[in-house]
């Protein structure tokens, strides 16, 4: 049994089970057996909380002080001292119980822990999983505060690190996310689709930049010219943005091709959808900091059609594991879809090459071991 030597305070931005949340779980599974005792703080109840408790890890729910664009509004600025007081009070209470040796913030959205850790001289690791390009003022603020409040910075891709541009004196690391390949074969979830057409899948949160509208427009263009396939959107919107789901469903209905298009709400394990899809599309209109969906698809031996920006260009090898298209180009996306949908042998070859690449570069073991090396590098 590994002796517990260091206690780690960890704060996450949500209690959901999307990419960054799953990557946090991957870290939490290895910490207790590697000499660390993690204590986690979440801002809300949710499926992530239950997953963490199932690992036997102590988890609390209270306000964490999130960074958002509204932080610069007058009303938010007025409330900020009171919010920070409550957050600092709760974190200090936990510290009196545990006497933390280091701290870890997952994603840029959390500001409370970095500020508190700096005030209490507790070493801090900030895991950056976002690229914030606009507004430019907000982007510049992030670029200044992250190095200022971090002893070590971890970025999920080279593109994320290039955006952040941390100074040389701050220890910075690029660690790609990793996953464990699933060997179990799941039941086909696409029984209600128009058979025997190929299945094109987009898995991810429904928001303004994941590219659902772009993929829908490209597919409608294809459908009108007689190039048919089944199109599946898998995912839900964040709390307060449910109107985006309604808008997507209305667009599907108005397309005239509702027979070939389906929306499925968020599921905790999307593996069955990857396994039984013919190709996976990641058409993000803004740069993906990483692109976990791409490696999840590759682990299931599926070809990936992705926008050629952000972390996706570090994952998908054009014309080897999938295809890359010019971001925001409906015509180019439609053409790439036609190519892949019509060529089963190409899909098979890309999928097999992608599975090999995922195992070699984006494994769970590599992700965990590199993160543990960062934790071990913390000086006390």
UniProtKB/TrEMBL annotation:
Residues 19-182 form the Glycosyltransferase subfamily 4-like N-terminal domain. Its EC number is 2.4.-.-. The keyword Zinc-finger does not apply. InterPro entries: Glyco_trans_1, Glyco_trans_4-like_N. Keywords: Glycosyltransferase, Transferase. Pfam families: Glyco_transf_4, Glycos_transf_1. Residues 198-355 form the Glycosyl transferase family domain. The keyword Cell inner membrane does not apply. GO terms for molecular function: glycosyltransferase activity. CDD domains: GT4_PimA-like. This is Glycosyltransferase family 4 protein. The lineage of its organism: Bacteria, Pseudomonadati, Pseudomonadota, Betaproteobacteria, Nitrosomonadales.
